[in-house]
Prior knowledge:
By secondary structure, the chain is α+β, with helices and mostly antiparallel strands. The protein has a single domain (about 5-145), classed as Pnp Oxidase, Chain A (Roll), CATH 2.30.110.10. About 15% of the residues lie in helices and about 45% in strands. It has helices at about 15-20, 60-65, 100-105; strands at about 5-10, 25-30, 35-40, 45, 50-55, 70-75, 80-90, 95, 120-125, 125-135, 145-150. The strands form two sheets. It has a seven-stranded antiparallel β-sheet with strand order 3-2-6-7-10-1-11. A four-stranded antiparallel β-sheet has the order 4-5-9-8. The longest helix is centred in the N-terminal third of the chain and has 10 residues, at about 15-20. The radius of gyration is 17 Å and the shape is elongated. About 25% of the residues are buried.
Amino acid sequence: MTHAERCLVALSRRESIALLAGAQVGRAVFTERALPAIVPVTFAVQRDAVVMCTASDTRLAAAATHGVLAFEADAFDLSARTGWSVVVTGIAELVEDSIERARIRCVLQPWAPGVIDVFVRLPLTVVTGRRVLATGATKCTLTTGGTVPSDGLRLAGADEK
């Protein structure tokens, strides 16, 4: 597939959240010592937030104490060179309520071993997403108003929202 047979489209908030809800692993992004840091985490979308858990002695736990976090999840088809990416940005909240912690525990299956004692909630404050599609015989259209031409230089309609 050539570069011209694909297009980049911005996803609506609804489309972005639906894709996010179907993923299991993403990346938490935060600042550590004035530098960007990224850690992979298992997560779930629950009650208008991304929820994740970690151990109390981790960098994520330290950053999540009412800090600004970004969260990214994606999926790709490497052979078709298509895929999607969704980013959530907001102020992290530590979950202290035992009932809410139990709800999160029910939906998360952490991959990392160890004691999981910190539960983080990242409200879906700012949600952005984009998808690379194979155009084939169809024209790339966008529910939010624009596409990126095959040269990848500009996102039409990006100013609209």
